[in-house]
Design a protein that fits this description.
globular; single chain; 0% strand; binds protoporphyrin IX containing FE; Globin-like; 138 residues
């Protein structure tokens, strides 16, 4: 599993916790950005986007907290990845999601955004998607 330095981990956790105070708004903003980047992805989502936004943000919160419990995190993300394979998510879609997530965090954090925060969040999101994608290589 990829690693983050202790400093990156704390930065990512702090930044995400800060953004999470606007979780519902940012969750919806994320999907708007995602479908702007790749309109074809819209068709994969069957459930209500508000509900979807809520479950995405809650899962990301658990993942951020899970950076302290790597074995559990790895297990949870592989299962999540296996479900995404069934949802029809392609390996190449993960980069689009990483991109949209980072953009959303930047919007949410406003003037609290800086290059260190960006690097830390990018490393954390990359770790999550890499772990999810490992479920595709069986
Ligand atoms: C950081 C990466 C991701 C996280 C944390 C995440 C999280 C979630 C969660 C919590 C669910 C709810 C269902 C479940 O738990 O199985 C879900 C569903 C879903 N996700 Fe993701 N996801 C990620 C990446 C992606 C990517 C790359 C795509 C590609 C477009 C995607 C598309 C979907 C779809 C299509 C569903 C099912 C929606 C439905 O049933 O209508 N996700 N995701």
């Amino acid at each position: 599993m990829h690693t983050l330095t202790d400093t990156e981990k704390k930065r990512a956790q702090r930044a995400f916790a800060e953004a999470f105070s606007q979780a519902d708004t940012l969750g919806l903003l994320f999907y708007a950005r995602l479908f702007e980047l790749d309109p074809a992805l819209r068709a994969l989502f069957k459930i209500d986007l508000e509900e979807q936004a809520h479950s995405l943000m809650s899962m990301l919160k658990l993942c951020m907290e899970g950076l302290d419990e790597r074995a559990e995190l790895q297990y949870a993300l592989r299962n999540l990845g296996a479900r995404h394979l069934e949802y029809g998510v392609k390996p190449s879609d993960y980069a689009t999601v990483e991109n949209a997530l980072l953009w959303t965090m930047r919007e949410g954090l406003g003037n609290k955004w800086d290059t260190e925060t960006e690097a830390a969040l990018q490393a954390a999101f990359h770790l999550f998607v890499t772990e999810m994608q490992s479920a595709y290589r069986k």
